[in-house]
Design brief:
The complex is a heterotrimer.
Chain A: H1 2-13, H2 29-32, E1 47-55, H3 70-78, E2 83-85, E3 92-94, E4 97-102, E5 108-113, H4 127-138, H5 149-158, H6 163-168, E6 179-183, E7 186-190, H7 198-201, H8 212-217, E8 234-240, E9 244-249, E10 261-268, H9 272-280, E11 286-289, H10 291-295, H11 298-301, E12 304-317, H12 328-336, H13 340-347, E13 350-352, H14 375-384, E14 394-398, H15 403-416, E15 420-424, H16 427-433, E16 444-452, H17 457-463, H18 467-474, H19 477-488, H20 494-508, H21 511-524, H22 529-546, E17 549-561, E18 565-566, E19 583-584
Parallel strand pairs in A: 1-10, 1-11, 14-15, 14-16
Antiparallel strand pairs in A: 2-3, 4-5, 5-7, 6-7, 8-9, 9-10, 11-17, 12-16, 12-17, 13-17, 18-19
Chain B: H1 23-35, H2 37-59, H3 92-128, H4 130-145, H5 148-159, H6 163-190, H7 193-200, H8 205-241, H9 253-262, H10 269-296
Chain C: H1 2-27, H2 32-41, H3 51-60, H4 67-80, H5 94-129, H6 134-148, H7 151-165, H8 178-208, H9 210-217, H10 222-251, H11 254-260, H12 265-275, H13 278-306, H14 308-312, H15 318-331, H16 336-341
Helix pairs in contact in C: 1-13, 5-6, 5-8, 5-10, 5-13, 6-8, 7-8, 7-11, 8-10, 8-11, 9-10, 10-13, 10-15, 12-13, 13-15
Classes of the chains: A alpha+beta, B mainly alpha, C mainly alpha.
Chain lengths: ~575, ~300, ~350
């Protein structure tokens, strides 16, 4: 895997010199998905049904600019962005864009739209459609901001010129954003600085294209199956948000010839045990599986496909609470007293997560970052911090039951003699309280969370636990409250507020957090690969050292896959795989 | 079931009491109850369950939350773990004993609380009548139509997933029926001769209600109680399934069933034990309820 | 007159329910947007919305006007049948969701009621007629057991047996009538228990009634007596149980919907509560409340019509209503939390 990523990176950055258009078509997926030699005209079209159950949640919306389970299906088959990710998830292949050129300074990308590609209603897919879609995503008060915060804030990782300012309202002139369609076939994207992850991030679900005409004509109903106009390999046929989404192959799709399965039936909201029962009886083809259950079932284990490094489980120090938590040595001692492998073992499907970067999958990761399990060291550190005779108790708020919670409580109790009070809060309560200073000053307070994302260093330094996150969480309680006052200040206009917030972070955050932020941005813009990785590691080391956020586990996702399913190449992305590659082996 | 079954009743509802019970009536009821072998068996089981629950800290071989790494998923009848261990290596028997404690506590407390409310509302509405009655009954109508699940979600949201939040949620869902039952009983008895006689003798309203009416209404109330406690336990399990039950590390039958359910195909005993205990208790309470209902049924004379 | 008064009460009651729901929703911690955002946080950034975004969101969710106006606006919409789009399912209006999902829940409930009646009535009669026999004991034991069995467990067992082991029926989905069988069976187990016990006791009571004794003493054939008198009179109270039972089933199918992948209304309701989706939560709560009250009204009327004592007293006095209400409370009211939470 590491080899793969290095090669492709070199391919696409070309050492930073004279990078010209690289068409990656033909590398990776096409060979594998070459249509059966039964006739090049696709005489044998897609057939059969494949049933997937990979989420117990509902699909509330098919709007890719809306943060919800849509990320499971839209990029997988309903809508296509300019590029798709490759099977390994470490590079891209052309999709709606046929090819692209990168400027010499690696900061301007010129995409050429695929000639002849059409929407499912026959309209050509144009560069203008792409610009329209990205503009919708970046418009602060438009349809796109339906708390696409997750989706649109992803754009700060992309580093498109002027995008962040436009999204925050600091600059309202779209002309200042580095996205423009110079003609129907050409889209030019300018970056603030070179970004090694740019193309990969363009495969994110929020960056798919939308059909402007149908969205404008039917602002609410465009996503109904009967009104759907898409450019993906599949179009929705029936959709019942809480129970199923049925998709059929899209004959207008540019690569229809390689689509093998006629109907994809995505089953939603199904109970995990019922899912497995159905899988075992052959009614489902690909299902997500619970790791602990899999551990108990040898027969099932043979059908399991694991996607490591899917995400991370972490503890976040909360503001307020007992002041001991503000002592870095205490936080580090707490972190050192965690037997992460044991947590992972009870949770299943995880590895001990020794850093905030999932080192088992992110290329360039260095074991020097890892926090060691060292109870004696932790006790020594506490002694040094003046807590030799004991720490105050701690509390942890989380939203659902998971075995690691109690295992962690047990570990801290044994190692440090403290009691960890676990509070499972209802979702609404959790969101309202997690960033508010915790009032009971007798307890050190944490909340638990998970993050997942692209397995690149830049993503795990710049986007996830990124500069603003790290700086915010390094603020003292008072400074955080002051920061929030600025955020809520309605008298400030977009630009002024953005400046005031940046000022607040730059001056009040831990100096190392500020340094982290600067290094992270610097690394992203560094063209030389070795130097870039080095800078990322330097930044990451600072983040680990402060220990405001404590890594626990690197999680993987498990899928049970029926024996006759082929072309299932899951990646560490929410959509898991692209449906267009799925097929069923004969007999 | 046995010889004493009389009234058409699927539960706590249509029970009628036509006469004030003389003292000896209680011993006759006890006798009737004793004749119902299932009811006696049920009562014995309930008593056993309560004792076990009370003594859980003494008789549990392990602490319910003690995690034993490396000893996960031991099968039942393993040395040291009679019912095996769960996914964290916790002793299932110990957890079951404490779960029983939680379940009974939740079931009984919720029933008690709703009885207190029901007595207040039912007596007030039934005795006072008129406007007060109309308002209180309108209130019960509203509460009756309000989905209990919503209360549970919001209460748990506000109070956290504590035992008391669950108890409150269950109470809110169950006081309505009991209030109406009590009100109906009181209204009926208000017109009975012996109450009239009491009034004529100058008994005050408090005395009338407490001395004459409450004892008369006790029968149906006992019946609803013996059906209500298991219903609460069932509801608690249901809330646990929806992620709204008592939060860990406190074990509850619902949580255990829920956890076992995930492993039903590979480790069926994880769900079999709690379900077995749960069903047995449900049966026991139902038998007791049947027995009590029959015992209070004065049709026989 | 009487019906008019009852209807008025239903309307007043619904208004009270709507106010209660709205108030509770305002008091509950968390709001739709922030819950949505924290869900998004797991894939992107934990980032607070800028004020422009917040303004946009507030406008989108109608939160830019005072709370009481929001309430009135919704209620005005509810009365005219236009409750607006759900927050969560933006492409669907609340009334569309209800209109689409309720018939599905209702069809399950009707199926379950039918099965329960078909199974429970003969069982109950058998148990009563063969009193104290193995039949009686076995039936009542099974009924009590079924009564206490959570329906998600029943559902799972059904899936394992009929889909897993026998491969007879589809375990999930909503493509055809075959998909109805397992959820209906899972739903009917608890009602069978309740009904069988009810029928048995009702038949036993009637067997002791004087007219039966009299008919017997006159030498009537026992079968005729059974059918003509006992059964007829025993089945009447059943009506009062079935109405609320239907309402309870139609609104209480959350687990069954989830296990069998049925797109019913229960799931929408829970998702709305958890996600603080105001229009959808208000819409579904009001709908459920209305359904329950209308069912009760219908039951009261039927009861009044069936009961000779009440029928004679054409005024349809409170007594009839009282007895109906008591029977009803016995039927489902008591176990309402369970209707959503577990069995029933």
């Amino acid at each position: 895997m590491n080899g793969g990523i290095t090669v492709s990176r070199r391919l696409f950055l070309g050492g930073g010199i004279g990078v010209t258009g690289l068409t990656l078509a033909g590398c990776g997926f096409e060979g594998q998905d070459e249509p059966e030699p039964t006739g090049a005209d696709g005489a044998e079209g897609p057939s059969g049904t494949m049933r997937l159950a990979i989420s117990s949640g509902s699909i509330d919306s098919l709007d890719p600019h809306y943060v919800n389970n849509v990320m499971l299906v839209v990029p997988a088959g309903l809508l296509e962005g300019l590029v798709l990710s490759n099977d390994e998830g470490n590079d891209v292949v052309p999709a709606a864009a046929e090819s692209w050129e990168v400027s010499e300074d690696a900061s301007t990308y010129t995409f050429t739209m695929r000639a002849g590609a059409t929407w499912s209603n026959g309209d050509p897919v144009t560069a203008g459609d792409a610009e329209w879609s990205f503009k919708r995503l970046l418009t602060p008060t438009g349809a796109g901001t339906n708390y696409a915060a997750g989706a649109s804030s992803y754009l700060s990782g992309l580093g498109i010129k002027g995008a962040t300012e436009h999204l925050s309202g600091a600059d309202t002139d779209w002309a200042n954003v580095g996205i423009s369609a110079s003609d129907d076939a050409t889209l030019v994207v300018e970056l603030e600085a070179p970004n090694s992850d740019f193309l990969l991030l363009m495969s994110h679900y929020s960056m798919v294209l939308l059909h402007p005409a149908s969205l404008e004509a039917m602002p609410q109903d465009w996503m109904q199956p009967e009104n759907w106009v898409g450019n993906g390999a599949y179009v929705p046929q029936t959709w019942s948000p809480t129970s199923s989404l049925k998709m059929v192959a899209n004959e207008s799709y540019w690569d229809f010839a390689s689509v093998r399965v006629a109907t994809i039936d995505m089953v939603l909201g199904m109970d995990a045990t019922a899912t497995l029962t159905s899988f075992n009886s052959g009614d489902l083809d690909i299902v997500s599986a619970n790791a602990t259950v899999v551990q108990q079932d040898p027969e099932l284990q043979e059908k399991i496909v694991e996607v490591p490094g899917y995400g991370i489980t972490y503890l976040q120090r909360m503001w307020g609470g007992h002041e001991a938590i503000n002592d870095e040595r205490v936080r580090r001692a707490l972190s050192m007293a965690i037997d992460r492998d044991a947590l992972a073992a009870v949770t299943g499907g995880s590895e001990g997560g020794t850093t905030l970067i999932p080192g088992n999958t992110v290329p360039g990761w260095d074991s020097g970052l890892a926090v060691a399990y060292d109870v004696d060291g932790a006790l020594a550190l506490l002694d040094e911090a003046g807590f030799g005779d004991g720490l105050p108790d701690a509390r942890l708020q989380f939203t659902f039951e998971s075995p690691w919670l109690e295992a962690l409580a047990e570990q801290w109790h044994e190692a440090l003699g403290i009691t960890l009070h676990i509070e499972l809060l209802e979702g609404g309560v959790h969101t309202e309280t997690r960033w508010a200073p915790f009032e009971d000053t007798s307890l050190m307070s944490f909340y638990g969370g998970t993050f997942s994302g692209l397995t690149t260093m830049s993503n795990w330094v710049n986007n996830i636990f990124g500069p603003d996150y790290v700086r915010q969480f390094s603020l003292s309680t008072e400074d955080w409250l002051a920061h929030q006052v600025i955020q809520a200040d309605e008298s400030l206009d977009g630009a002024a507020k953005a400046a005031a917030l940046e000022e607040s972070l730059a001056t009040n955050s831990d100096p190392r957090a500020q340094e982290f932020a600067e290094l992270a941005v610097q690394a992203r813009g560094t063209v030389d690969e070795a130097e870039r990785t080095q800078t990322f590691l330097q930044a990451a080391a600072l983040r680990e050292e402060m220990a405001f956020t404590i890594p626990l586990m690197w999680n993987s996702r498990l899928f049970a896959v029926a024996d006759d399913v082929e072309g299932f190449a899951p990646r560490a992305a929410p959509e898991t795989c692209y449906y267009k590659y799925l097929s069923r082996s004969e007999g | 079931m046995t010889a004493t079954v009389k009234a058409p009743a699927a539960g706590p509802g249509p029970i009628t009491i036509s006469l004030p019970p003389p003292r000896s009536e209680w011993s006759r009821r006890a006798a009737r109850f004793r004749r119902n072998r299932l009811a006696v068996l049920g009562l014995a089981l309930v008593a056993l369950a309560c004792l076990t629950a009370l003594a859980a800290p003494l008789i549990a071989p392990h602490h319910y939350a003690t995690i034993n790494p490396g000893q996960e998923f031991l099968p039942s009848f393993s040395p040291g773990h009679l019912m095996g261990t769960d996914l964290l290596g916790r002793d299932v028997l110990s957890r079951l004993l404490f779960s029983l404690r939680t379940a009974l506590f939740v079931g009984i407390m919720a029933e008690l609380l709703s009885l207190i409310i029901a007595f207040a509302v039912g007596l007030l509405a039934g005795y006072k009548g008129g406007k007060i009655d109309q308002w209180l009954m309108a209130l019960t109508d509203v509460m009756f139509a309000f989905p209990g699940y919503l209360f549970a979600v919001l209460l748990v949201a506000v109070l956290g997933r504590s035992t008391w939040a669950v108890i409150l949620a269950l109470t809110i869902a169950s006081w309505v029926g009991q209030s109406r039952l009590l009100r109906a009983q009181i209204m009926r008895m208000k017109t009975l001769e012996f109450v009239e006689a009491g009034r004529a003798m100058g008994a005050g309203p408090w005395t009338l209600v407490m001395r004459y009416m409450v004892p008369g209404a006790l029968g149906p109330v006992l019946v609803t109680t013996s059906f209500g406690i298991p219903a609460n336990m069932l509801a608690e399990a249901g809330l646990a399934i929806l992620g709204l039950g008592v939060a860990p590390p406190t074990p509850s039958l619902g949580t255990m069933i829920n956890e076992g359910y995930r492993f039903v195909q590979t480790n069926p005993e994880l769900i079999a034990w709690p379900v077995g205990v749960f069903v047995l208790i449900m049966l026991a309470f139902t038998w007791v309820g049947d027995g009590v209902r029959d015992a209070f049924d004065v049709d026989e004379s | 007159m009487y019906i008019g008064r009852r209807l008025l009460r239903v309307v007043l009651c619904l208004i009270a329910v709507s106010m209660l729901t709205f108030t509770l929703l305002q008091l509950a911690p968390g709001d739709f947007a922030s819950i949505q955002a924290s869900g998004g946080g797991t894939v992107g950034l934990a980032q607070e919305a800028t004020s422009e975004q917040q303004a946009g969101l507030a406008a989108r969710y109608g939160e830019d006007i005072p709370v009481w106006q929001q309430y009135l606006k919704f209620m005005a919409g509810a009365v005219t049948g236009d409750m607006g789009p759900s927050y969560k399912y933006q492409h669907l209006d609340v009334e569309e969701i209800i209109a689409g999902a309720f018939p599905i829940s209702a069809s399950l409930a009707v199926g379950a009621i039918l099965i329960s009646v078909l199974v429970a009535v003969p069982l109950g009669i058998l148990a009563a007629v063969r009193r104290k026999s193995v039949w009686d004991w076995g039936t009542m034991f099974a009924a009590t057991l079924g009564h206490g069995l959570p329906n998600y467990l029943a559902g799972l067992v059904l899936v394992i047996v009929f889909s897993g082991m026998l491969s007879l029926l589809p375990p999930f989905g909503w493509d055809g009538p075959a998909n109805m069988i397992l959820p209906v069976l899972a739903l009917s187990i608890a009602p069978i228990g309740v009904l069988a016990r009810y029928v048995r006791n009702s038949v036993l009571e009637n067997l002791r009634e004087e007219y039966v004794v009299a008919a017997k003493s006159k030498g009537g054939r026992s079968r005729t007596i059974m059918v003509r008198h006992v059964l007829r009179n025993s089945m009447m109270p059943l009506v009062t149980v079935l109405g609320p039972m239907f309402a309870g089933l139609a609104t209480g199918t959350i687990f069954v919907e989830s296990i069998f992948g049925v797109p019913g209304l229960g799931r929408y309701f829970t998702e709305a509560a958890v996600g603080r989706d105001m229009p959808l939560l208000m819409g579904t709560t009001l709908f459920f409340a209305a359904l329950l009250m209308v069912m009760n009204l219908v039951v009261d009327l039927i009861y009044a019509l069936l009961d000779p004592r009440v029928r004679a007293d054409l005024g349809l006095t409170r007594t009839g209503e009282e007895s109906a209400r008591r029977a009803r409370d016995a039927g489902s009211g008591r176990r309402r939390p369970v209707a959503v939470g577990g069995a029933s």
